[in-house]
Amino acid sequence: MEEKQKYLIGIDNGVTGSIGLISEDGKDVRFITTPVKKELNYTKAKAYITRIDALELIKILSIADPLTSKIIIERPMVNPGRFVATISAIRALEATQTVLEQLGLSYSFIDSKEWQKAMLPSGLKGDELKAASLDIGKRTFPFISSKHKDMDGLLMAQYCKQKHK
């Protein structure tokens, strides 16, 4: 069993999100695609939904010391015009919060614009933000290998580390 230590953690909320973990001393840096599982939807129509895999998320976050770790979660997108995506984001947030509470980990919410302002060049929009996140994440953490479309979770963790120096 790994010893619990102080981690700075960024959680890019959602079923296509990511999690960044950086130990206080910077010797342990992890970038993980949010663990999910697909299953039949709860409606009568044949459809599938993607859900947070809570048991896997517990395994990932259980290394963090509840007394000293700092966690930021990106506030979910809520847009009535994008109902299905909004519901997915809120369901993912609820599952994540439940896991954090089970582990005794405190957390705070952050708007994407706050961490992006500190970590990404100004003036970017849409797909440019994802591309910049991936590029800056790879340059900042060249030893991290990932096929994820961005490194938001890890850049959020880095922002959290800078904020809580």
Could you provide a short overview of the structure?
The chain is an alpha/beta fold and 165 residues long. It contains five helices and seven strands. The chain has helices spanning 54-61, 83-103, 112-119, 127-140, 152-163, and strands spanning 7-12, 18-23, 29-33, 36-40, 48-52, 70-74, 108-110.
Key traits:
165 residues, alpha/beta, Nucleotidyltransferase, domain 5, 5-stranded mixed sheet, two-stranded antiparallel ribbon, 7 strands, globular
Instruction: Give the percentage of residues in beta strands.
Output: 15-25%
Number of helices: 5
- What strand line-up does the widest sheet have? 3-2-1-6-7
Tell me the number of strands: 7
The CATH homologous superfamily is called: Ribonuclease H-like superfamily/Ribonuclease H
Class in CATH?
Alpha Beta
**Helix- and strand-based class?**
alpha/beta
CATH overall fold name: Nucleotidyltransferase, domain 5
Approximate helicity band: 25-40%
| Secondary-structure element order, N to C | EEEEEHEHEHHH
- Name the CATH architecture: 2-Layer Sandwich
CA gyration radius, whole angstroms:
16 Å
What's the overall average pLDDT, rounded? Answer: 93
Sheet having the most strands? 5 strands, mixed
Distance between the termini: 28 Å
Query: How many domains in all?
Result: 1
**Apparent shape:** globular
State the low-pLDDT regions, or none.
none
SSE blueprint and pairings:
Elements: E1 7-12, E2 18-23, E3 29-33, E4 36-40, E5 48-52, H1 54-61, E6 70-74, H2 83-103, E7 108-110, H3 112-119, H4 127-140, H5 152-163
Parallel strand pairs: 1-6, 6-7
Antiparallel strand pairs: 1-2, 2-3, 4-5
